[in-house]
Amino acid sequence: MSFEICALTNCADDHFFLAKWLDYYGRVLGGRHHLYVILDGPDPIAREIAQGASLIEMPRRPDDPKFEQT
């Protein structure tokens, strides 16, 4: 039996933890081609850190107080 697997995360100006996440899940899943990163707005530093992963850039949500409510 064979299957494909991926991991997904989002990033909003948190380059330190993005790099940690990419390193860990890249090793666990066998390469960055299994990783997807959703960027909260344009972030050239995150784009460089996430080379080899698939990137999805969403428009930044300006000043929406309910955006991060749980």
Blueprint (SSEs and pairs):
Layout: E1 7-11, H1 15-29, E2 35-40, H2 44-49, E3 54-58
Parallel strand pairs: 1-2, 2-3
Number of beta strands: 3
Structural class: alpha/beta
Which geometry do the CA atoms define? elongated
The percent range for helix content is 25-40%
Q: How much of the residues is beta strand, in percent?
A: 15-25%
Cα separation of the termini: 38 Å
Elements, N to C (H/E)? EHEHE
Unreliable stretches (pLDDT < 50, length at least 5) are none
Number of helices: 2
Short description:
With 70 residues, this protein is α/β, with parallel strands linked by helices. It has 2 helices and 3 strands.
How would you characterize this protein structure?
- The chain is α/β, with parallel strands linked by helices.
- The protein is 30% helix and 23% strand.
- It contains 2 helices and 3 strands.
- Strands 1-2-3 form a 3-stranded parallel sheet, covered by helices on one side.
- Helix 2 links the parallel strand 2 and strand 3 (54-58).
- It is elongated.
- The model has no long low-confidence stretch (mean pLDDT 89).
Descriptive terms for the model:
single chain, 70 residues, alpha/beta, three-stranded parallel sheet, 2 helices, 23% strand, elongated
